[in-house]
Every structure is written in structure tokens, then in C-alpha cells.
Amino acid sequence: MTISPKTLFEKIWYAHHVGQTAGGAHLIAIDRVFLHERTGAAALKSLAASGRPVRDPARVFAVMDHIVDTRIGRGDGTLMQGGSAFITETRAAAHEAGITLFDVNDPDQGITHVISPELGIVLPGATLVAPDSHTCTQGALGAFAWGIGSSEAEHAMATGVLRLDRPKTMRVTFTGTLAPGVTPKDMALHLLATHGAGGGAGHVVEFAGEAVSALDIEGRMTLCNMATEFSAMTAIIAPDEQTFAYLVGRRHAPAAFNDPYWATLTTDDGATFDYEIVIDAATIAPMVSWGTSPEHSMAITATVPQGPERAHAYIGLDAGQKLAGTPIDAAFIGSCTNARLSDLRRAADLLRGRHIAPTIRKALVVPGSSAVKRAAEAEGLDKVFTDAGFEWRASGCSLCFFAGGESFTEGARTISSTNRNFEGRQGPGIRTHIASPETVAASAIAGAIADPRDFAR
Amino acid sequence: MTPFTTLHSTAVPLLRDNVDTDAIIPSREMKTTGRTGLADGLFAPWRYTDVAARVPDPAFPLNQPEAKGAQILLGGANFGCGSSREHAVWALAEYGIRCVIAESFAPIFRANCIRNDILPVTLDRAAVESLAWQSLDVDLTTQTVRCGNQTHTFTIEDEPRLMLLEGLDAIALTLKSLPEIDAWTAADRARRPWIYAGNPA
Q1: How many CB atoms within 10 Å of residue A231?
Q2: Can you tell me the ipTM of this complex?
Q3: Gap between the Cα atoms of B113 and B106, Å rounded
Q4: Minimal Cα–Cα distance from A454 to chain B, Å?
Q5: Is B198 part of a structural domain of the chain?
Q6: Cβ A420–B198 below 8 Å, yes or no?
Q7: pLDDT tens digit string along B50-103?
Q8: What is the fold of A8-164?
Q9: Domain range annotation of chain A
Q10: Cβ pair B98, B35 in contact under 8 A
Q11: Which of B111, B159, B192 has its CB closest to that of A24?
Q12: Most CB contacts within 10 A, which of A73, A132, A226, B67?
């Protein structure tokens, strides 16, 4: 008997296949559920109201990340009006349900997709869902991890499974080597610029190729993070020695990865995908978004292409204009995309001994987790940032989005290491340009959108 | 849950690509931890000229007189992209929308629609554009959208079709499979003990 070659996703899918529904969908076992206070409280409250218990509370986790105050010395109060109700209600519901909660000032608190890998909660070959679109980030560890709505989170907690139609598969292969100064964020923005924000169309996207294998684990998370901006169901990267070395010793991870099972978590030679994209990594330049969708991204050396009129009008840039040199008012380093220790180190390298331009009205660094914050402080990175004129904050999602509390000044042009440049995402009229942390740092120094390679040491 | 079989309504066009869930319901409009009180914030940045004072923008499609009571919204490509917030769908449902017809949908938004009795219909761009401001008959049993003497057929997987047609509660339905789930979990516990290792202090 011959066994047909399978993709990594297919192996995880079959390994979690519990049964089939009358409608031909599949019951897929869920190993981990992760909640946050913004969408998790609704799921927990609705579940409690229905009288249904959480089936296995030991495999459900929650954290306060979305609207927590990121000013040092915070409590339950939020800058968003009425926001503390989300915190107190999530806390009460989490305790009632008996799930693990990383509270506001817990040493393990941080952004969901930063702390789940840090604590070894996400594992290769596992299924993990969270009512948060950027759950795809966690596919970087070789898990099948994807974002869902609150109702589906409730379903997963109540039943231990989700009802799914089998998604299609795509492989995006990055061949060759990235040029110096080019980062995983640039890979993601390049993919979006060339294949569109709808290019992933519900597929499970496996990232592969030499340029992906060469990325460290944190870089892989940045790449996978943007899969939701590609409209993919999620992304996944096959675990390798680096992945297992990253996870060993983390609190919820196995003490060793010597079970033969772990070595099976690869895509077999000859396995086929529904769609394939190949990109030569060497052709990628540092990227910056110019418009109001992540697909409106361009090489920093290029001129603004023609896009939808509405996007040009909102952002205040015309086709044919150079993006580099456009004055900015604010800079933000943070989010589940680019606020891990390696991101902060690379930004700090550019900022060390330099200062942001006097025209920058607000510059923030918000570490991805409390552990990242402590590690950065132990290396003196906080001092580098504050000496350069950035504010140093406590961990949370912060100004990746505007929740009604803190924002930039109305209409400000912001360069941001985040994932979404939608109209109003960071506040009313805020014009967001997304880029790598290096590009944010370089632009903050220049006071205008700048090529990080011009500031390299 | 409310079964969805047929729907007769005017179709209101919002023919933009990449309409994101931040635009459908901005984070600042998600003021309570529940699923209600969201319709007022639906499309707030586009629907109002002054969001705080709730001054309607007469040019926004949903504010036009023909849109009164409409239950069908038309969209472009990648409708509902961005944040997974189910509040976007709760806001649409509370406002009265029961069907969104678009060139394509972002996957989480589409799944959220199905869990909230909103039918997501995918048609090609030209067909969607031709439906603007028309009176439509949407029929999930025959999987058709009828507009005058034109009929467009759409596809939908069997599972969501069944869930919508019968207005089924997904959790109640899945709980009927508990014996199967328990058996699977017991076997998996032996295969992958690390998944069930518990919660070290």
C-alpha cells in the first residue's frame, strides 16, 4: 500500500479529525483556546448564560491585552471610556470558568500571540483558536492556529471541537536570501502588494523556502502574523530544530521533543497544494504602506502607484509621488506583529546615540509582553529608546488600534510597526503607514519616511 | 436561531473592496461586553459626518431614503477583512441586515455571518454591481438571487446551508456528538500526553 504524500496542514487536520457532520463538514478537535478581554468576555458570558460548562478549563487561557492601559503603574482603569468593564468582567468570568488568566499585572501578561509562544502554550502539530484574527501568528511554531469569532470560541470551549469545511491549501515559497536591512515584515508586505489583500482567499498558507528557514522564530511569527491581512484562514511553517530549541523549557511545553511524532511534522515531498506562489527573496526591498489597505504597500525606493481614489484622498498622497521624505508626526513600535525582543533590539540599534526629529509629536514603544519588557530593560534597551525620545510603556495592544481612549493628534501621519493601515484604525483621520521596526526607527530620526538602510551601522 | 429560507428586499450597494470590520464597527463603538447595542455604531465613520453627535451623512448608501428597511447589503472583494470581531456581524444583524452579497468575503467574517443567521452570497463583480438598488428575491433553498427576469445562482457548502436553512444552534448540534468526541480525546491523550499535561504552577 502506498501512502500519498501529505502537506503539514493535512497531517494536523487528519490527526485532529473526530468525525463528520450531516452537512459534510468535519469535527476538528481543538487543543487550545486563547481569549482576550475584548472578545473573550462575550464568549465566556454567553457560555455561562447557556448553562454549558467549559469542557476542559486546563486547556483554555485568557489574557488582558487589548484595552489595558499601557502607562507604567497601571491598574484596571483604561483610557477607553467604560473599558474597565471588559477587564473586570473577563476576570470574573475566567475565575468562574476555572480557566488560566494572565491578569493586568501578571508577570506573564502580554499580547496573546506573543505570550502563547513564550509560555509554550502553542505547540507544533497542535490546534489552537482564539477570537482574534492575528492568531495566525502562532502558525510560526508549526501549529494549526487560526482566528475565529466569539461564537466559535464559545463552541470550542463547550464542545472541544469546531465544525469546519476543509480549507484549501497554498504554499508561498521564498527562495534565496533576503538583502541586508530587509525583514520578515517586508516579506509580508511584498506578498500583499503583489498578490492583494484577498490573495489568500481562505486558504491555509504554508510559508516555505530557504529565506523562511533562515528566519529566527520571532521573524517567522511576524511573517505568519500578516496572513490574516492576506485573507488567508491562517499560515503555518514546518517546525525545525530551531522551533524545538525555542520551545524546550517553556512552562507549558514538553521537557524534550524526542518523541518520533515531532519529526513527522513536515510537508512530504510530492505533496500538492491547491495554489503555489514563489517569490525570490533577494528582490524584496524595505516596504512601507502608502494607502488604506495592507495591499497598498510599496518598496520605499519606489513612487506611489495608482490606487483607489478614496485611498489617495484619505492618505493625502498622489500616484507618482515619492513616499520617502514624506514628513511624519508620530511613530509607534508595538503590536503582535513587531514588538518582540528581536524587534526592539533591531530598532534600538538604529536609535542608539540618535534622537527623533523635533517635529515628531508622539513616539511610543510598547513591548509585546511583560517578559519582553523585562528582558529589554535588562539589556538597557528602554534607556536607548527614552534617550532617543520615545516613551517606554507597559505591554499591551496599545495604539495598534483606537479604542476610544488614547490616540495620536487628529489627522496625524504615523509610521507604525503594526499590521493595519485601515481608515481610522489608529484614530479618527489618522494616516497610518505600516513598516518594519527598523523603518519606524529610521523615519522617527529623520522626521519623514526613511529607508532604514541609510541609518544602518 | 432564525431559519433563513427566502428574503425579499432592496439591495443597498457599498461597492468598495476590502471593507474592513473596523469600518463596519470601529473599536470605540464596542462599548459593552455583550452582543447588543451595536447597530447605532454600524459604519459609524462613514455613516455620520459627526460621529459623536451622530449627524447622518446623506450621501452614505444606508442613509438614502430607498435604503429604509433594506435587509440586503452589497459589497466588493474581500468584504469583512481585518479584525475577527463578531461585533461587525452583530451590528449588521441588529441593524436589520440578513444577507450580504459580495464578490468575496474574508473567512472569519463569513463564518461569523453563518453563526448569526446572515447569509453570505458570493457573486461575480458584474453581477453584484447589477443588483444595486434593485428589489431582490434571495432563495437559499434554490441557491438563487432573482432580480427582475435575471436569475443568478450561487454556491454555498452543504454545512452552512443546512445550518442557515434550519436555524440550527451549532453548539447544541455538536454536543450530540459528545460520545464520539470523548472517545477521540481519550485515545489522543495516550498519543499526545503533552497536550493534556495540565497547568504547571
Answers
A1: 28
A2: 0.97
A3: 11
A4: 33
A5: no
A6: no
A7: 999 999 999 999 999 999 999 999 999 999 999 999 999 999 999 999 999 999
A8: Aconitase; domain 3 (3.30.499)
A9: 8-164, 169-283, 288-455
A10: no
A11: B159
A12: A132
